[in-house]
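User: Please go through the entry that follows and flag anything odd:
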Amino acid sequence: MVSAVDKVFRAMADPTRRRLLDALFREDGQTLSALEARFRMTRFGVMKHLNVLGEAGLVVTKRRGREKLHFLNPVPIRLVHDRWVSKYAEPWTSALSGLKTKLEARMEKVFEIYIKTTPERLWDAITDSDIRSKYSFGVRIDTDWTRGSRYATSHPSNAGPLVEGENLEVDPPRRLVQSMRALWGEDVKREGTSRVTWEIEPVGDSCRLTVTHDQLREGANDELYGGWPMILSGLKTWVETGELLTTPGSLMYATPASSGAKR
């Protein structure tokens, strides 16, 4: 049986597939026709490469009317980074990742990850403030989780709320939709309100979790969405093992009590 990590390495070993990922990095949410126009190969050939990337979780698709859009999913790369890279070169890769992220700004971001758990347990991990703080940089959330209610997030090191918004849809244990207004700095405050959708789908003994961050303006500040791969990696680690990610990046904003490790 081929492991998820092996699928990622296999998918990225081919130069054409790496070019497809680069194309989606430059412009996320492209149709098959748009991607086909960038390569000297048949439509079927491009589809085969996209299927391999999809099996590795590096590309996810979403329907928009009659169109099928392809999105780069950086979460598997983050998992490989946490397993193989961070303990050797975290300071270097963090700096390079930060530089690369600054060049990226799109209207919609889609993140997908598979977690071996039940929908109910995954829903609890998303909505329980104590659990959430363990994989979300020590940030807690305060809300009653009813449709139309308000929520706010906070961190012990910050005097006021970091994020506020409304619970637009609450359908446990399948779907949660929230508006999001970032408050941790003047630059992100100017970005206004965006939307985050959590979708849980059972797949065998696991769940596919898809997080879509949309309604972002063109050129939006990357601080709004850049932390999702690390948050979802931490969520997967916590749910499946009961342990915390201990890479320097994952502990960057954690409190001493929640990190359990020196920085």
